[in-house]
Fold these 3 entries.
Entry 1:
Amino acid sequence: MTPSNGNMDKLETLIERTLRAQPARRAPQDLQARVFAEIGRRAALPWWRNNFARWPLAARAGFLIASIGFVRLALAAVMWASEALHSPQVAGALNPARDWLHGPASIVFVIADVATSVLRAVPSYWLYAGVAAALALYVALFGLGAAAYRTLYVNR
Amino acid sequence: MHAYQDMVFSTAARLTGDDALAADISQEVFLKAYGNFTELKTSPTAGGWLKTVATRLALNHLSRYRKRWRLFSELRADTDDEAEGELEFPVPDTALSDIDAAERSAIVDRALQDLPAHQRVPLVLYHFEDVPYQDIAGQLGVSLAKVKTDIQRGRLALARKLVRAGVLNGRLDS
């Protein structure tokens, strides 16, 4: 049940007044010491372990130049590899590897065929029962999670 | 820092309902303030800046965990609401004189802390931070109707706890 409409405004005024009258909570006594200790710890870190924005200007510029160089190098390597793959010598050398890959691919196709046959052979109500069992397990785990939350987290 | 630490801690503690977490958030707020010290040291709005950052960090933390726990906590809160009787306040002046101010304040803080997050957070934003309903809905990513309902239920739940603790003068009809 909820308060009647007339009580709603009274309730709002009451809660407003009660909360407004609350003094500030006292911060833990060690808060200041913790903050200063953390500032000291961060100041003691070497520059490369700090936020990138706080790196020295020269280091930031060097890092950007090195990054751009690395990207260009990677692109050049991809281009070179692509051209090399299309050359007749490399294509000839790759043929045995290509043949060898046909083996694993055919195994995958055989497994897919077997799975399809099994699914066709299994009665449909088995599948429905399997799906229902999975759902029941899911709901049970969800309930277990809710119970654990209420027991361990909410009532702490 | 000394002048603002209680305010920052209060903001974080009331929003999160967790003192240890509020202390961590307060530390983070002051570390950010240290990073902006040159702008803040002469700013007349430093207090507002600190409060805004504390609120934002607390809400960020809560939103990170809200999706995981929201369903469970809302289920629990709804059952709590329905289980109670009607609440009436026959006397407008509600402060009971026989309760010491410090004790009364501790009881109110504890009652607030015990509210589920989806009621406590909009309630705190509305009553302590003066954030309008619409802005609360925007900040929390929920509908305006839900914010109003949660605040109303939060007030009711808080009042029940305070009546039971003898801080408010009212009557619970079950």
Note: Chain A is about 80% helix and 0% strand.
Entry 2:
Amino acid sequence: MKLFKFVLPLLLAAALVYVLDRSWGALPPLGKLFSPSHGFFQHIEGPDAGRSGILSLPGLKEEVIVHYDDNGVPHIFAGNDYDLYYAQGYVVAKDRLWQMDFQVLAAAGRLTEVVGNAALELDRYHRRIGMAKTAQEVTDRLERQDSLSFAILQAYADGVNDYIASLRPRDYPLEYKILNYAPEDWSPYRSILMLMNMRHDLSTGTDDYRMSNLIAKLGEAVTDDLFPFYPDRESPIIPVGTAWDFEPLGLPPVPAIKMAVDTAGIPLASLVETPAPRPEIGSNNWAVAGSRSASGLPLLSNDPHLTLSLPSIWYQMQLSAPGVNVYGVALPGTPAIIIGFNKDIAWGVTNVGLDVMDFYRIQFRDAARQEYWYDGQWKPVTARIEVYHQKNGPDIVDTVYYTHHGPVVYEEKDENRYRRDFPVGYAMRWMGNDSEGADLLTFHYLNRGENYDDYRQALTYFTSPAQNFVFASNGDDIAITPNGKFPLKWKGQGRYLLDGALPEHDWQGWIPNAHNPTVRNPARGFVSSANQFPADLSYPYYLDWSFAPSSRAIRINERLDAMHGANIDSLSSLLHDNFNVDARLVLPDLLATLAVDDSIAGMQEYQLLAAWNLVNGPEEVGASIFERWIPELRSGIWWDDMRAEGPVRTPSLDRTFSLLLQEADSPWFDDRGTDGIVETKFDIVRRTFLKSIADLREGFGEYDGGNWHWAKVKNTTIAHLVPNFTMFSRTGIVSGGGGGIVNATSGRHGPSWRMVVALDQDWPEAVGLFPGGQSGNPGSPYYDNMIDKWANGILNPLVFLKDRDSGDTRLRTTMTLQPKTK
Amino acid sequence: MRNSIFLILIIVIAGFVLDMIGPWWLPLIACFLVCAWQAGSGWSGFWLGAFGMSLLWVGTALYLDARDVTGLSAKMSSLFTGSIPALGVLPGSLPAYLILFVISFLLGGLSGYAGAMFRKAI
């Protein structure tokens, strides 16, 4: 009995420890998490925490000095390239280990292992499009054939792993503790997976399925009228009139059958209105020649727009070793600086967004799916088994069937499929699955570049995701090159779903790298890109029929065209430009259309819109009304005509504006949903205006001054990578801008890094910042310290040190990494 | 009384040391051993362990929280107030401290009780 009285409470205590030591469904392991010496209290940090001292590291060859400045930015000085990339891996992991690890799990389709079943469809999607398979193939090929790339990746991985090895469980980043798992070792494969994430985010937009549904309904002539191959308003990246300095390969002939003829669209259970979203993942970059600058030397600017997240997408750092001294932003998990500058050159990137994802209808021989029909014979299918380890539950086994085009992403109709814009029963050919090239070397060499020739040489290594590489040097060169490995296609190839049995539907080879559009020192004295058409129709190859709306490009180019004596402030002002080019184009006509109705012209909201200065400033009400109204108007005009048995898209904004301005009597304005009534342009304009006002009233209350401010309506939010962790997100950020605005800050997307560099013969000057902070730790003052400045249009001067001993008043601490003596 | 304070302090100090070297539940050993050594009864063991352990946890948490500039404990509280709305009536960091207190009090108490009963059993 005495023994029982002792054993019972002991067992009870042990059971409680057991219960509190593990996670139960979504509930974190409370004991571990709340123990102050092991859980989240360990993550409360001062500004200099862990950023000083002397560390002995087994992997290092020589001593490395890391100075941290007052923004938490590391300035790394190493004695050789191995140590440089090793230290980069170590230092980045110190601030961002969880993020790197998590994004790798996402790319590899393994999230369900740590967050549970909610991620299963996302995982299936990532696996089935081949992300992990391609990353492995790329890694294996680099290991065999490309010793430089692999050595860089391995050095970086060694650094990350030595950092991981130094951690006790209580040192693991906070998210590990909440989700209750541990970091895995880093490897070159994992860095390649990080690059696969970028390929995915920037090159998996597809309209093929929507367009096939449309042409089946509307016919080719109407489709070509509504979805033209070049917009009415455009300001292409390569200035119109630029001569092509190469002898083009012949364009492959357009075959008689241009698409999978029976579109075989799978009817959806319910028709949900899904106009193609306004492309918001875009970017701006530009360079101004010395002839237009105050200093007589070029300036360069870049702001990549992405879905904003915390921890931040980018990580600022300076990397210095013999032969290289570069500053800029890196992607956590990936070696080298992606966007930045050194003593002589600066460069930046925006997404090209050409069509590099096509779908091929596959006819399997039978249900066993071992063969498919191609070019008059049965070809073998390769099956790949994918296994998903669930956090709570048994493994799930899945088979993916590969044709020579690529994987059949979805074989059977499944309403839960992650990508409803992907057709069922089609194989996917995607540039992201190309395992050639060495994208990393482009950045390795740009980091070390000194002049235009170095820039051109560095670009030849790059495959995907294709980027518009802007360049400037203190040799007074500026240039821009839409660059990557471009498939050679017949005009319109991949505009619709393709037929996997026809050889003429295969990609026809590659556009030679030297034939990628490029321009050096154009007469106008500036180069720029904003994801618009790389070139006008004089370019002898077919890249795509649709690119991002031209509004940002038009605004950027007209401001640069008017710019003289440019300096950092003038380029910074352009980065934060909130002028609404679309409103300038279309609003006068829309207001005049509405004005014939006295009941509307008398409305307070109408007058607010009429008095609006066409600027998407944070406190503008006109911007709120206009930005709500235009999508409403677009679907009001088109949706009744486009509705089909499957996903479709509506014509572009550009085409919509042309209809409004030049085809006022068009039958497209008639709403087919109303019997016996023929609506006119006025009816649709009026109806959609009133609808958007009603929506604003419903969402924000009757207009009373402040409640309809654009910043409130837009509600810019930067969310943590785990959607449930809203406490680590920032919402209600007060900023202007919008999707089609140069300051492309919308609800969830925006400039993920802003940079302006003024080149100089002696030493460049640069400013920049990103919406977040250097640290991935929510308990660090550097977690989100740059967001307010970012929202207010302020850029930080960047500390770019000449050498390890040059010093700067803004340096705070120094961390010395020493080789561990054996 | 004085003896109790002395024993609680021993639990806190020994627990603190154990906390530095081992897993999060290691300080419970201190609760157990101190009570096995000195506790008069099961319930006195419970109170000694409960107060010792919760003092260790709350004290360490307050010490670490003193340098906070990001409101981390309040943010962590909101992770739980979302699913347990009753906790939402407490402002800021209090839900986190309440959870932390309850866990340490219960675990410490049980360990101390077990320790005291161990003394009786032998």
Note: The mean pLDDT of chain A is 93.
Entry 3:
Amino acid sequence: MGIEGYLLVSTLLFGIGVFGFMARRNAILMLISIELMFNAVNLSLVAFNAYLPPDANTGAVFALMIMAVAAAEVTVGLALVIAIIRTRQTPEVDQYSDLKE
Amino acid sequence: MAVVTLRNIIHSAVAMMICFGSLAGMYALLGAPIVAAAQVLIYLGAISVLILFAIMLTQAGDANLPAPFHRQLPIAAVVALAIIGLVGWAVVQTDWGLAAEAATAAVDDIAIALFTDFALPFEIISLLILVAIIGAIYLARRPEEDERAN
């Protein structure tokens, strides 16, 4: 399996993430879909790093940094979701319509 | 695929963990063992547990599971299929013309790169994580404790 296989898997994973983010109604599941998209990008970065190696392994370093940023993002995101759920008593995003007239 | 289609959100979270684990295997196949180890530690270890805790905190009882999908489901399916089709077509059509063998990224090379060429982003990321931790604690704190402290 060459680089195409890894890139196709990455594309599929990204598409599934996009679909989950747009189609699901649960706020936590939307966060999970964002994580799937992060992972798809990470996979393509590592695949490119393995098959056309630049100087100093830039792809792997980028993947590690994306992981750290994703961890920070999911921490803040889950805290926000829990704070919203505590006041709204529901995780369904289409019931957060207080600002709508 | 099961991650976004299952009705029960705990089942989707477990499917997500399986997906992360197989991705760690793929990183190991691609000759990046340090990325695979970080994947297992951060995603399988930290983020999955965090998400599972959030699900357990927010789900009182799953006696009546609501419909999982938004009404914009068809649009979402069309957009996702368009993205998969376009990018997949681009991947298949492009002649990459490069090594058929995966190169191995040695751990010490990555460490040297991380602390020489990428030292400034590394430090900025540590600052970002500190800010994220403080923000998360502030957001998740209960308002009653806030008033009691005053």
Note: Residues 1-62 of chain B form a domain with the Four Helix Bundle (Hemerythrin (Met), subunit A) fold (CATH 1.20.120.1200).
